Amino acid sequence: MGILTKKVTSPADFKQAAKTDQYRHHDYYLLDDLLSDEHKIARDAVRDWVKTRVSPIIEDAADRAVCPTHLFKELGNIGAYGPSIPAKYGGGGMDDIAYGVIMQELERGDSGIRSMASVQGSLVMYPIYRYASEEQKMKWLPGLGSGDLIGCFGLTEPDAGSNPAQMTTNIKDAGDHYILNGAKMWITNSPVADIAVVWAKDESGKIRGMVVETDSPGFSAPVIHGKWSLRASVTGELVFEDVKVPKENVFPDIRGLRGPLSCLTKARYGIAWGAIGAALDCYDSSLRYSLEREQFGKPIGGFQLTQKKLAEMITEITKAQLLVWRLGSLMNEGRHTPAQVSMAKRNNVHMALEIAREARQIHGGMGITSEYPCMRHLMNLETVLTYEGTHDIHLLITGMDVTGLNAFK
Ligand code: TGC
Ligand code: FAD
After folding, report:
1. Could you tell me the residue range of the domain that residue 364 belongs to?
2. pTM of structure
3. Helix, strand, or coil (residue 5)
């Protein structure tokens, strides 16, 4: 089975084949058999939404560097925010494989759209769900789940990226509230957010997490301009100048980097699935183009070098799919480790980036245009390779896991 399920003998057959869905079949190892009906329903609903709501506008949005904020509420309507958070708290009440397939379909559309859902679900809803008081959960989570409220996650600082432990943003106790000072950098959605989950050091140097309302006096979130990547996603700073944070907004029990890093584990897992969506979109476009485009009297897909590219793409995609399916199963059972998540994030994002580069080549000159999605995915994936822990940081996490030796200290 696989891609070619019917005999193709001539260029005309190739052209016809390229037009049918039959030849765009990506499930090379019949992984659909491993999904439940609920997973498939969720995946197909999100895939349809992406086809009708994202694909028609995304090239233009990326071209103009405009974030399609009108889709934020719709993402809430289709259940993209916190799919594995209990429904009582505004999530989807599904498992982590459902969460994964949803991220895959969103990133098939664009990494920026998947980013929106990753930040809202895994980096804003998840810490509130996991670490806030019951009262705070009920205050924020339903609105975040429905997309009526937008959140962002502030960990990175201008001088603290890969090493968030060296952050300088801080809170000082002022009776019934804290006073927050400092700055965060590279924060997805900060300029449009209603609330920010912020990580800052207390007077004893311990990292604390809190919800900061973005209409608080002393808060600002300037946009970062000039990005050649994730152009359909808005990124900004967070600046805190004596911002008053009510004590009830500070997560009561969590201390240290474990807090933000536990949220990153959840988000990195979603990215490992999401990257497959970007790779599939590039592969799909490449396969069709190579069957339609003729040079030297035959489709370029008939040349061995093009077939090598396509064969390697579907092989790497299939390996990546197996990796996340197994990781998702472990996560559902609570048996995954953060290091396993690092391996999947690193492998799958790199895989997708390599596929986007090869896909761009298969499309020749057309590959650099917005007629095809490859260049946009390629540029997006340069960010995905860096955020949520860089490619090399995840390598060192794996290195530490297998040797027991810590290269960071
Ligand atoms: P280390 O001493 O190793 O650990 C400190 C404490 O944290 C625990 N821990 C984790 N817990 C849960 N999940 C994880 N992944 C964890 N990793 C570590 C650890 O057990 C320890 O707990 P405890 O109780 O003993 O204190 O920390 P370290 O300072 O040596 O740092 C290690 C390192 C370098 C791996 C870590 O700092 C790191 O991962 N750095 C990368 C930073 C990063 O990923 N930043 C991402 C910012 S957010 C973002 O990019 C959002 S993009 C949004 C979008 O999708 O648009
Ligand atoms: P640095 O840490 O300065 O790293 C520079 C280079 O040095 C990298 O290649 C890195 O791998 C390498 N390096 C660093 N330390 C080591 C080491 N020990 N050994 C070997 N090599 C090393 N952050 C948030 O908190 N919230 C967000 O919403 C968010 N969204 C983002 C959106 C975008 C578009 C981007 C680009 C970033 C976003 N980030 C966000 C920040 C992102 O997580 C950081 O960019 C990332 O963690 C890397 O930090 P840095 O950019 O400071 O690079």
Report:
1. 258-403
2. 0.95
3. coil
